[in-house]
Amino acid sequence: MLLGRNGELNQLNHYYEREGSQIIVVYGQKHIGKTALLKEFSGDKPAGYYMARSCSEREQVYQWSHELGMKELTGALYPSYTDILTTLVEGEDKKKVLVIDEFQNMLKTGSTFMAELVSFVNNPQNHSNILVILVSSSVGFIENSMLKKIGEAAYSLSGLLKLKELKFQDCVDFFSGFTRQQCIEVYAILGGLPGLWSNLDVSCSVKENIIKNILSPTSTLYYEAERLLSEELRETAVYNTLLAAIAGGRHKLNDLYLHTGFSRAKISVYLKNLMELEIVEKVFSYDTEGNANVQKGIYRIRSRFMHFYYKFLYPHMSEMESRETADFYTSLIEPELKPYVAEYFKSVCREHMERMNETGGLPFVYDRAGEWVGKEGNIDMIAQDEDAHTMLVLCNYEKPLMPYEDYERLLYCASKARLHVDYIFLYSIGRFDEKLYLEAKVKKNIALVSMSEL
Fold it and tell me: Which of 29, 51, 284, 311 is a good FRET partner for 81, with 20 to 30 A between their CA atoms?
């Protein structure tokens, strides 16, 4: 089932329907759904597919031509890329789609692939029409190294399409058998990555899925975090140290310096690499007049599955090996799961605000929004329009009832941020204090949003 990708599908069809041949790059982190999207797109079209290996250029052409059975056709054991491309499009009258997966492997070990591809595509005598889709899971390479690597061949690219994580609403649609709260938990643990969602069993509870599909050494996800890290990065010992430190609550550069013993310069370089891979992010507070009261430049683990792994599994490796998985969950995950999910419940609430903003369901249409990270407390979301009308958002996941004191705390943070507040949206996984119901009824500018509305 392809969810949440209508925009991307339309873009691919736009390229396909254009006159002539094109080369485009489709990229996004692993498990984000690139394969499912391209299968859906190419299903009714003449198409070819090749998964590029991490190997020498000579081995690459050998493997590709071997898959096509070219030795039997041409007698060539090590043909050129041009020979392979010619074989692929022979006899096609209709525009063909050629998907080359993990194509960065070709660029890293050879210099002829892009030159031959561009020459082939730009020469109409070689084919009728062709759409070449170069696919990559290496976000950092595409965004920071690809253009330098391919040089003038970059001018022949018709476009780049980056796949972003799916939204919470897509998660709800995917897990139609789960409750809203279960979907929130799954979204907090696996993020918007449908390739990870597919490992879960909707007939089991989230707890049972964690025990069976994440904590069990025989499960697919048990080693997945380490595998994702080692595939992209070399000095994993350094990265493990930093990620474990951030997951343990050390979010500032100085905290990481004091804990790891690494120099600040070294930490900055390695964090930059993690940010390029979208594993870590640097969070800057929403800009208000109360800048003196904010924390500046804190680091968080952006990848939710990586965050879950380094918070709950990595620090307890010995217990994972020595305890029963169910006991491990009950003792070391369950007591801390709610505070962990609470952080990501905020993103679910923000997504709901964005949806209402797009459909005109808010008091005004905001054009900028963000989180305010204060020294004495945070504001989960500030949204403003060009006339400085202001909405604040507060999210409650941990408490079965949102107390009036949380609302007062929000107003205190707003005063520290030096904000004039026009509207307030309070989200709660449970009920609201009766005093809050009365406040909302009297003031008219407070909205109480329950889980059923998400």
Answer: 29
